[in-house]
Specification:
heterodimer, A: about 290 residues, alpha/beta, Rossmann fold, 2 domains, eight-stranded mixed β-sheet, 12 helices, about 35% helix, globular, B: about 400 residues, seven-stranded mixed β-sheet, six-stranded mixed β-sheet
């Protein structure tokens, strides 16, 4: 069976060695595998926010939506609710998802909308050249905090759990095989799925050396993903300080009714002439 | 007699010049969120705070909406307050912009003007501030880095004046001014408090005199609050005169609400906001030497709108070209154009006016473009009209 090409003509402008490359490679591989396993390519929609990560939609040749800073999740929710048959994958940065857009994060988890959020968590605002973000450790010396950030970081894994997310995971940009698996598991999960990805920023906060030494696989060591309290305990094992071991893998996974199931009860809000007629529409207009 | 202080000559980017003025203004609270192209302003301020050169609370908020909300609270508590943003950041602040002016919370905000989505663009135009035009803020425009510095200092004095008590925006063209290094004269630190004494807010939150801010006003009182806002803005021109004279005493630089070049005796005038004024002036000087009777004007103060000054200035010319770096979609043209049309109409001036919409999303407006526009203006004066009402400059169709 042939592998669908997701290449685009856009020139990649990320810094050489950026953790975003790992996420891009894993996302492409995951989409290719999903297509091979039967998901129509036309049914996949990806979104991004504003920040270095945002360019990912330029580099993957699928339906895409460039949203405003922080607004990946409401736009993703709108797309999913208008057409629940679509596979909706949002990419966001840590400033994007956990700062400017944090209310959307909480509410997407609370509603359990069947969408995936992959967060490029580099613990720094890279595109504006190095200020501290919601996940930067206290004391981080960024461009807006020469004497160190005065704030404790937010724990997105714990916040997702507390907000009611039904799939909560963490990946590492340098662990491609594991990240492909996580993204696929997140897509296959019915409900809101968070994949927080440790994504070192080689220019402003190079955490590769630390993470490569200190991440460990929850599933390899054994962890009950249906146990909320165990998930919360693992979530609190590490919180963005470059100290101690860093768990990656699936923290929590349970089945609950999704937002669109509860709201639509099988209705389709709009009958759209899509999927098999996309090429027909294109022929008409181009 | 004017006593010009010993100035220090230096060179800075527009963003740095604003930050330097804010430091000299000795602000108490700075709250902002990173966004290009204003980021350097708050970075410099954070360095001043970290180095102990500025004793202020520097807060990197979780969004622009939060940043400006922090500023409103701090301003009403009596602090001198600064923030800066651009584009989407200003759009996200929008509801609080109204609250800041109508709660009469003085603060200064630098806007490194940048286009709005979509499509995504980080370059200069004025769509961001024009979106905030009717929020009750005073809006000032710098045409170069020196003005960005000067207007920032003057903005504090103007907005905090007891007769005004309003927030002020200082607009500097994104990248064109925010990131351009230009020669700059700065006031010595000790001269600044003389021009700009510490903030003395008459209604600061005071536990011994409990008060409610922003309470509900029903139909029987709401309009009176809004009228007060309008009346405060009407007082701005006369207070500006005082502020401007006082600033001239320390700096030697004079700021009228509308600046102009060779308008007297010209047949046609081109009006623009921001850095484009410099380009137009540069070319107009040469064209005048060739005998073309064209002048150039720029509004240092866009809100409140300097109607009287413009009516006088344009009352005797034969044609006007108004340049807009923003557009009122579905409307008659750009916002500055419609303002000037209205000014001319209600002051009985019947002359042809052409609207040139240019430079959206940072599209270059070069010396060659300026020459074409100035020649077009002169031609309009000579022929007594323009073939079109609105021209989208240099756009592909």
């Amino acid at each position: 069976m042939t592998v669908v090409s997701l290449e685009t003509y856009a020139e990649n402008t990320w810094c050489p060695g950026c953790g975003d490359f790992g996420i891009l490679a894993a996302a492409k591989a995951a989409i290719q595998e999903l297509v091979r396993e039967g998901t129509p390519l036309e049914n996949i929609v990806i979104l991004s926010g504003i920040g270095c990560h945002g360019k990912i939609v330029d580099y993957i040749n699928v339906n895409s939506f460039y949203s405003l800073h922080g607004r990946v999740l409401p736009a993703a929710t709108g797309i999913k609710m208008a057409n629940p048959e679509l596979t909706v994958i949002g990419f966001a940065g840590d400033g994007d998802a956990y700062g400017e857009g944090v209310e959307h994060f909480v509410f997407s988890a609370k509603r359990n909308t069947d969408i995936v959020l992959v967060v490029h968590n580099n613990m720094v605002y890279g595109l504006t050249t190095g200020q501290y973000t919601p996940t930067s450790p206290k004391g981080y010396q960024g461009k807006s905090t020469p004497k160190g950030s005065p704030e404790e970081p937010m724990n997105p894994i714990a916040l997702a759990l507390a907000s009611g997310a039904t799939f909560v995971a963490r990946g590492y940009a340098a662990n491609k095989k594991h990240l492909i698996w996580l993204i696929k598991e997140a897509v296959k999960h019915r409900g809101f799925a968070l994949v927080d990805v440790l994504q070192p920023c080689v220019t402003f906060y190079n955490t590769f050396p630390y993470f490569s030494k200190h991440v460990y696989d929850l599933q390899e060591e054994g962890h009950d993903t249906s146990d909320f309290m165990a998930a919360m305990e693992k979530a609190r094992e590490w919180n963005h300080r470059l100290e101690g071991r860093v768990p990656i893998g699936i923290f929590y996974k349970v089945e609950k009714p999704t937002f669109e199931e509860e709201l639509l009860k099988g209705r389709r809000p709009r009958q759209m002439p899509y999927i098999d007629t996309v090429s027909h529409v294109l022929k008409q207009h181009i | 007699m004017a006593r010009v202080a010993q100035v220090r000559k230096t060179a800075m980017m527009g963003d740095e010049a604003v930050a330097y003025a804010v430091k000299q203004a000795d602000v108490d609270v700075v709250a902002a969120y990173p966004i290009t192209p204003q980021t350097i302003i708050v970075e410099r301020l954070s360095e001043y705070v970290a180095d102990g050169e500025l004793n202020a609370s520097f807060i990197q908020a979780e969004s622009e909406h939060s940043a400006i909300s922090i500023c409103v609270g701090a301003s009403l508590a009596g602090a001198r307050v600064f923030t800066s943003t651009a584009s989407q950041g200003l759009a996200l602040m929008h509801e609080i912009l109204h609250a800041a002016s109508s709660m009469r919370a003085p603060m200064v905000m630098a806007i490194a003007n940048r286009a709005l989505n979509s499509p995504l663009n980080i370059h200069c135009d004025h769509s961001d501030v024009m979106n905030a035009r009717d929020t009750g803020w005073i809006h000032l425009f710098a045409t170069d880095v020196q003005e960005a510095y000067d207007l920032t200092l003057m903005a504090f004095r103007l907005g905090e004046d007891r007769r005004i008590l309003l927030p002020v925006s200082v607009n500097l063209d994104g990248f064109i001014l925010s990131h351009s290094v230009e020669p700059l004269e700065v006031l010595p630190d000790h001269e600044v408090p003389e021009f700009l004494p510490p903030k003395d807010y008459p209604y600061a939150i005071d536990p011994s005199r409990p008060a409610t801010y922003g309470a509900m006003a029903l139909p029987d009182t709401y309009m009176e609050f809004r009228l007060q806002l309008h009346e405060a803005l009407q007082k701005v021109p006369s207070v500006w005169g005082e502020v401007s004279r006082s600033f001239e005493e320390v700096s030697g630089r004079r700021y009228s609400m509308v600046k102009s070049f060779a308008v007297d005796g010209s047949d046609a005038v081109v009006v623009a906001l921001g850095s484009t004024y410099g380009t137009l002036k540069h070319v107009a000087r040469r064209l005048r030497d060739e005998g073309l009777r064209v002048g150039v004007a720029s509004l240092t103060m866009y809100r409140p709108f300097p109607e009287d000054v413009l009516a006088r200035m344009l009352g005797d010319v034969k044609a006007v070209v108004v340049m807009d770096r923003a557009y009122s979609y579905g409307g008659l043209g750009g916002p500055l154009y419609t303002d000037i049309l209205s000014t001319l109409y209600r002051n009985g001036v019947e002359i042809p006016v052409l609207n040139v919409v240019y430079g959206l999303g940072g599209r270059d407006f070069t010396v060659r473009d300026a020459e074409e526009v100035l020649r077009m203006a002169a031609e309009g004066a000579e022929r007594g009209g323009f073939p079109e009402k609105v021209v989208w400059w240099g756009v592909r169709r």
